[in-house]
What does this fold into?
Amino acid sequence: MSREVAPGIFLIEPEPDARCEFCGKVDELRPYGPKGERLCFDCAMKDEKAAKRQFIKRLGVESQ
It folds into this structure.
């Protein structure tokens, strides 16, 4: 779970392995798919702009 620990300071913690919603690989996933799907790193990086949008959305901060 990623969380804000102080104003503007975020902690990204490891998460348990699960099955990627795109490729099916069992790995640590993050909710960075275009619609918030939980993806492995390789699948998330196929659309870096979408991953960045979801990352920023999850942090609850404005894009820099």
Summary: Strands lie at 2-6, 9-12, 17-19, 26-28.
